[in-house]
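EI: anyone free to look at a 340-residue chain?
SC: sure, send it
EI:
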Amino acid sequence: MDSFEGYPDKWLGKSPDIFARDDLPLFRVQAVVLRNGPDEMGRASMIQVRSSHALLEGSDSALLTRSASAGHGVMSDKSNKVGLGARIKGTLRGWGMTFIYVVLANLLAPREKPWGFKTLALKRHRLRLLANKLGVRQRSLMFALVTHALNGEGEQRHMSKKVIGAAYTMLDGKRHDADDDFFRVRALEAKFEVIDDFVAYARKIDDTIDKIEKKDITKFQVMMNSMFKALRNLNRIAPFLPGKRFWRFNGGVHVVLTLVPPHRTYGPMTHGMMEPIYCGAWHPAANICTFCPGREYVTLNFTMETRHIANVDKIEALLAKVEAMDIAPGRKAIAEDDSV
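SC: here you go
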């Protein structure tokens, strides 16, 4: 190729070819190489790894970036017992939610919508400085930038005029015996009240996250794991269930905000690799933004309805606008570890 202009976005898609052949593993690796050698930034080639999400999580990608083994082993902790009552309640809720979702999905799932893919790379230092200025977590700031910009202002809201339904993920080292033996990630639900003033909005999101994570997150995760198990069993009994429409049903969630572990290059596998590093996922029912922090950059990786993709460019403009504001202090900056 003559240049990297338009990449990695030109590469991005739904990747149905991964499942086209049974004799190949569920991943593909591609590369592009500049015809005339390294560019002005020293980049000579670009590599893309595509995989089934059942094979690779964001945490696995982070491990591979550090030349570490991504083998999961058994992820549950059998020594950390979940109470019998919580387990029974979670299992019943999981089976109940599975039944409800399968029925509702096959009745109410929307048709396939036009889908788009886009990436954005931001300097980590910019986000760190602004988060400290606002007195919020860096991830709260990132969640606020994305949802505020994509939702729009005034009467023409693209997600909701009152409350944005969000699902977000985190990695939690406190495993228990009811955990899934493969998935590392934790899924949480949040409702973000729509506020026009960005400073107030970002701080409200930070307060919302704080309240959610001070509660016992085991309850929701036990239910989710029960749903996974119920869906597998249902499919074994009736292979036509849950059906294709099920995967297009999002249950009222406007956006999924996924934060993967830091992708920091180390070791022989990524020797010579340069930032920014991109990492994302596509799902037929979810407008997803995956945040991938590195040493110098955080990349935002969007797989969304095309009507939202058009607003991704507003994120950096919003960031610059808030950076230029004279923000009155009043909140103590929240200490975070370096993994955001």
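EI: Residues 53-79+115-215+250-323 form a domain with the Chloramphenicol Acetyltransferase fold (CATH 3.30.559.30).
SC: 👍
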